[in-house]
Amino acid sequence: MRTSKVIAASFAALALGLAACSPGSSSSKETTGREKEGSTGATTVTFRLWDENAAKAYKESFDAFTSHNPDIKVNVEVIPWGQYWEQLPLDIQSGDMADIFWTNSSNFGLLADNGNLLNIGEAVGNDHDAWVESTAKLYERDGKLWGVPQIWDSIALFYNKKLVEEAGVDPANLTWAPGGGEGDTLIAAAKKLTKDDAGKHPGEDGFNPDKRAQFGFNSQADLQAIYIDWLGQAGAKFQDGDNFAFNTPQGVGAFQYLVDLVNKEHVAPSAADTNQNGDLARDLFVQGKLALFQSGPYSLPQISENADFEWGIAPMVAGPEGRVSVVHSVAALGNAETKNKEATIKVLKWLASKDGQLALADSGAAFPAVVDAQAEYEAFWKEKGVDVSEFQKATEGKTIPAPVGAKVNAGMMAFNDTLKEMFLGSVPVEEALKKAQDDGNNAMK
């Protein structure tokens, strides 16, 4: 009982974890029911995830699986993100958890430590060559693999073609340097792309930052798209092992630059707005009011469906250490208490294969983790006139690990408000980072 309470307390912090590696949001709960083994002459394996768009692809995938394995049926359950992590520990405690379920890198550690997961290395194998390498490494703990990588995302730069052409900005060659020093091109470019309702740019006489009609770049307390990448590009770390380690001179330089984009240079939306609405920058981009939007492929559906202007994808902004992107992935985990272990392992092996992930790729739902299935995802977006290769290139260069650890969500919950205050400019960067790191690490003890 104590272990279950600890799990529940940790997962209560989930809103701060990496949610972005998901092709769309779930607005309703859909469960297909749990059939007892033998009720239809076949063993039923349950698969749980939080995304309805991906669920459609998985149902297609599992139909193909069942055609080869008629003795196994896979039922897909969709539980919306807002309920997913509250329900997970309750179902583990009650024994009603699905046989296989989605999780992200910041949430598998506690489950692995508490013996709730099947050892994927033993059950499926450790063939990292089959997957985008960094996606599998995220789910290693204590020398063992605990998840089958399913989908992934990295970071690149969406840009409004008309706005950058009018400003004479090349989005493919933007760089930043601490303090806007030698080699920095982002600040000047973002100023050209920012203007108030009178058409004046930051630094010009009469510019009014309170009446900006167009913004240059998105800088905010966004771990995945912004600040963890900036840390890597500054030569800093987000974590050392399971502990937070961003309060270093390099980390201070990275965060100070980002905060200055908001409060000093006035090229990014106000933190008073982005702290309340994490999707504001994406919405501004879609509305044609933000010229440069650093984000991941998880933003592709919304931009593709709603932007009525020409846009493209360039490499992410480069820092002192070059381009360094976080690569995050969602994995399928096996329930250690499954009553259908043999069938569950067969399904996990299917999910680890090209055939198992083709439906995800063909539908454009997300980048599949299996390398050989990625051409189909590229083809889906190519038909829509979108080149997604910059996201793939980001995985081939320098990367920084996504958050991991048994209690990392509790740690991020402890410091998130401090970082928001820092982006508001109400707390100095050095003071905020010291407090954030101390509070975060103390919360994980």
UniProtKB/TrEMBL annotation:
Residues 21-41 are annotated as: Disordered. Keywords: Signal, Transport. Residues 1-28 form the signal peptide. Gene3D superfamilies: Periplasmic binding protein-like II. GO terms for cellular component: ATP-binding cassette (ABC) transporter complex, substrate-binding subunit-containing. One of its GO terms (molecular function) is maltose binding. InterPro entries: SBP. It comes from the Bacteria. GO terms for biological process: maltodextrin transmembrane transport; maltose transport. Belongs to the bacterial solute-binding protein 1 family. This is ABC transporter substrate-binding protein.
